[in-house]
Amino acid sequence: MFDQLAIGILQGLVILTSVVVVIGIPLADTLLRKK
């Protein structure tokens, strides 16, 4: 039971991190170009 929860949390963290990277890099790029 706890193992499944830990795996679910880990998968959620991986998905969150990838989403942040995918959205964050273009955002940072546009912000840097504006300056």
Query: So how many helices?
Result: 1
Average residue pLDDT: 94
Strand composition percent: under 5%
Structural class per helix/strand content?
A: mainly alpha
What does this structure look like?
Helices cover 94% and strands 0% of the residues. It is built from 1 helix and no strands. The longest helix is centred in the middle third of the chain and has 33 residues, at 2-34. The radius of gyration is 15 Å and the shape is rod-shaped.
Characteristic key phrases:
0% strand; transmembrane; transmembrane helix; 1 helix; 35 residues; membrane; mainly alpha
Write the layout of secondary structure elements.
Layout: H1 2-34
In short:
With 35 residues, the protein is an all-alpha fold. It has one helix spanning 2-34. It has one helix and no strands.
